[in-house]
Each structure stands twice: as C-alpha cells, then as structure tokens.
Amino acid sequence: MSENDSFWDVYWETRLQPMENLGKRSAILAASRLIRQLAPQADRPLRILEFGCGEGQVIGALLDAHARECSRSASIGIDYSQPSLNRCRHDYPGLHCIHGDFTDGAMLEGLRASPGSFDLVLLVNALHEVFSDCYSSEQNEIDVTAGKQKVEQALAGAAGCLEPGGWLVLFDGLEPSGDPEQAVRIRLRDHNIRREFDTFVEEYQPFQIEFNELESPLCLKLSRRDLTRYLTKSIFLGKELWQTERLQSYQYYTREEFQTACTRVGLEITELRTLTMNEEKWRYRVEIETPGVGFPDEHILILARLS
Asked: Which pLDDT score, from 0 to 100, does residue 115 have?
C-alpha cells in the first residue's frame, strides 16, 4: 500500500464515520480509487454523473474529497425527488442538480448533447427503484420481464453518457444465484420477530410472500428467494423508512444477469464483488435450519469500463 493510499484510508474512515449506509461507503471508496487512477492521465478535470443522486451523499462526498481532480460545475446529479435535490444543493453548492427521471429518453439525449460526456457515472442503489417502478396492478406484483428490460435500458443509458474509456460504478441489491425456489427452513428468534415477519408479509408490495408454518409459530418454511426478500427488508421494519422500503424490491438481477447486461451495453467489468453488510442483524432475527444453506449475498459492486 502506498503512502497516498494510507492517507485516503484515514480520510474516508473519518469522513464516512457518520454514514449509516455501509453500501454507499463501499461505492464511495471504489469511486475514489478510480478517480485517483484516472486523474493523472486526464488533460482536464474529471466530470461525474450520478443517476438517482438523492441528497448527494455519494457524488458530493467525492467532489469534496477530489476538488482538484474533478470539476464540480461540470458534474451532474439527477433525482426525481425535489426535497432530496434541495438538500443536495444546500449541502453541495455548485453541483448541477437536475430534477427528473434518469430513464427518460429526452433527458438522456440532453445529457449526451451537453458539452463533453462523463468520465465516471454512478449508479448507487438506483436500478432496483427502476425495477420496482414496473409494479403491475393487474398482476398485483412487479412485472419481472418489464422490470428487467427497464433496468437494462437504464444501464444502456448510463453507458451512453460515458466518454470512450469512461467508467461506471454500480452498487445495488443482488438476487441469489442457484435455485430461487429451494425450500428453506428457518426459526425466528422470538414472537416479537414473528409479528414483524407477519407485518412484512402483509405490507411488502413488490411480490406475494409465501410460507408454511411448521411445528410452531416460530418455525417456518419458505423459498430461498422469499427468505432473501425478507432478510434484506427486515432491518427497516418498525422504522420510518419502511413506508418507502416496503414498495421496492432490492433484488432484480443475479450475478450472472448483471454480467450479461453489462456486456450487452458495451461495458467491460474489471471488478465485481458481492458483499453482505447486515448478517449480524439477520442472525439476531433468524436461524437457518436447512443444512448447507447460509445467509445470502446482499449487494453487488461492479466497476466497468466502456469498451
């Protein structure tokens, strides 16, 4: 590890300490590493674009840290939430914030027509919202085929905004590989957690959750897919965020589907990692009793270069 890397390790450890979202931290660290690699080779300050920037925690932190390497005025954050963008503008003055839907074709054309494309595009916890927006009232759940097509279109839109040789940083939820319908036996730790589980089943909108109660109210059988859905949402139960989180599926692509989609839109993956941030919290709630079945990978982090 170089002296420069050691400095950044300390910097980010201090800067990101208050950030509760550990996933965003992983994305920021990966993007910072990329910026430090790209900047010495560039003949101008780097331009960053973030789709679904929210309050600007990711792009804002990177622009603050790399003020010399990146152009704040030429970087853009896009989000459909006006209150989030207002906070972003307040916290990160000078960053160009656009209110709108980053899957909108006219908006993407406008971005491509702006002076110069982008050196780095960020998609941090954004594409699962695109997938979740394809909820079908007729099916009473997300239209999976339409949702996956919309995700790939959004990914293609992100790739289309990159300079030749530009980079994408993608961080999001992960659908487990293997047989999603494999039956898994679990034991909930206590009756309060069972009540929370029932709330999840009743209020989770994206998909119908199916389970069987076994020899006791705490012993349940459900599919691997539905167990993953429950676990990744369980940390929000009883919190204000649940009212938003219950409307969104964090899972949409498997690892293999991410790889295939990136290839189809002209992105070459140079780094792919799966991460689990909340296993300790899951173990507090659930014991998995089926032999050979462990807790699922929760997130995927991809660094990809435009071919």
From this structure: 56
CB 76 within 8 Å of CB 50: yes
pLDDT of residue 238: 93
- Tokens 């990809």, located at residue: 304
Q: Residue 170 is encoded by which pair of tokens?
A: 């993608």
Bridge partners for 183 per DSSP: 223
Looking at the DSSP assignment, which residues form a beta bridge with residue 79?
99
Average the pLDDT over 161-168 and give the result. Answer: 94
**Which helix or strand (DSSP H or E) is residue 121 part of?**
strand 118-124
Query: What is the per-residue pLDDT for 1?
Result: 47
What count of Cα atoms within 13 Å lies in the side-chain half-sphere of residue 97?
A: 26
| CA distances to 66, 84, 176, 213, 291 from 11, in Å | 12, 26, 34, 49, 43
96 vs 35: CA distance, rounded Å: 19
The span from the CA of 212 to the CA of 226, in Å, is: 12
Task: Please give the pLDDT value at position 114.
Answer: 64
Distance (Å, rounded) from C-alpha 74 to C-alpha 59?
Answer: 12
Domain boundaries, the chain: 3-174+253-277+297-306
Query: Among 3.40.50.300, 3.90.45.10, 3.20.20.70, 3.40.50.150, what is the CATH number of 3-174+253-277+297-306?
Result: 3.40.50.150
